[in-house]
Amino acid sequence: MKNLSEVLNIDWPMQFQDIKVKVGDIPVFPRDLENNCFYIGEMNKENLIKTIMHECCHFLYFEKW
Prior knowledge:
Oligomer: single chain
Shape: globular
């Protein structure tokens, strides 16, 4: 995430130091930017790490925009 923030030319915002992830039986992964939270479905460990990284990227993109 640090490398991505450098590519986007922004600092990793302090409010993102505590991003919450909620796991449930859901087909889509909505995010709540105001509360630094996103939701994911159950999955294997490899997909979990990729999904969390992907969802965290959204926080940086919205900060940049």
